[in-house]
Amino acid sequence: MVFTDATRLGETFDLATYIANFMPPANGYGTEIGDPAAPCSGQCAQDVAAYIKAGLTIPTPQVCASDTGALCDGFEGASLDALKWSTTGSVSISREQKYAGNQSVKIVGAGGGTTLNGINIDLTNLTSLRKNQYGRVMMRVTSANALGGDFTLIEATGPANYTIPSSVSPMPAAKVDVAYSARIQGTDDKFMANYTTFPKADWTTDCTNHGQVSAALPKDTWACFEWHVDTTANEVTYWLNGQLLDISVKNKAGANCADHRQNDLWTGPAKLDKLHLGIDQYQNTAKPRTLYLDDVVVDTQRVGCPAAP
């Protein structure tokens, strides 16, 4: 089948070439650098032609509802969206791996001591996400240097909840931030929950929950990781590939705390200031680890895992 156009009389085109020459801008789909004004050419034109021939609709980029304060990103731009993210350490846009689209975020932990690497969301202006937050990320960890030391994967941070009675949990002398995080234990690459406070003062805690049958970290494949932080209920829930992880916690107490000055209570934040995703390492024996992230969604209700691309 060939196609013609009135602006170029006497010429004929196959479908992909016709799309590349005459189709309006692609609105970000399939473009090399994610430029909304870029024409649909190259792989974009081939993809659109294939969809048309198959009788399917042309996919459009995912859009998040701004009125709910939701945030989503498939990382298809030339760089990270500075209006959504800040970065710490070794972070880059990469075409080495992708769950959907053409790109993902590559994060590298160098090992050998404390190294903080990842992407951050400032939640202070996203009021709908500060007390009750659900999230989902597609992640891929390489098998290189497996069992290479603990690292933090996701951390939600905010000011301590000072409504806990001092007779149960001593009030701190100064402002304290607390964090709920999902971490990977370096000895077996299994998920664990962590609760910690900083700066290390009156509320020095550092508590962990390994669960009874904690799941192992998938490697060299894409996995769906979800979380839910409810600051009012003092509850954190985690899922892996849609399955509830038993490292989830609610009003936790007495679980493997390094310091006991808070009577081993997991007193979560009153509200969330920051969400961090990446590889944060703390041990001198930690080895380099590489993580890819794609299709991040944060919302006020459970997002769920995406359909296979």
What name does CATH use for the topology of the largest domain? Answer: Jelly Rolls
Average pLDDT works out at: 80
Low-confidence runs: 26-37, 57-69
SS summary, helix count: 2
Radius of gyration: 23 Å
- The total of beta strands comes to 16
**SS-based class:** mainly beta
**The CATH top-level class label of the largest domain:** Mainly Beta
- Helix-strand topology string: HHEEEEEEEEEEEEEEEE
First and last CA, distance? 29 Å
Structural shape? elongated
- Tell me what portion of residues adopts beta-strand conformation: 25-35%
Gross CATH architecture of the largest domain: Sandwich
When the domains are counted, the total is 2
Helix content percent band: under 10%
- Main sheet record: 9 strands, antiparallel
Describe this structure in words.
There is one protein chain. With 309 residues, the chain is mainly β. The protein folds into 2 domains: 61 residues, no CATH class; 234 residues, Jelly Rolls. Helix 1 crosses helix 2. The radius of gyration is 23 Å and the shape is elongated. About 8% of the residues have low confidence.
Could you give the topology of this structure?
Layout: H1 15-22, H2 43-53, E1 71-73, E2 86-88, E3 90-94, E4 104-109, E5 115-122, E6 132-141, E7 151-159, E8 177-185, E9 190-198, E10 207-209, E11 223-230, E12 235-240, E13 243-244, E14 249-250, E15 274-281, E16 289-299
Antiparallel strand pairs: 1-16, 2-5, 3-4, 4-16, 5-15, 6-11, 6-16, 7-8, 7-15, 8-9, 9-10, 11-12, 12-13, 12-14
Helix pairs in contact: 1-2
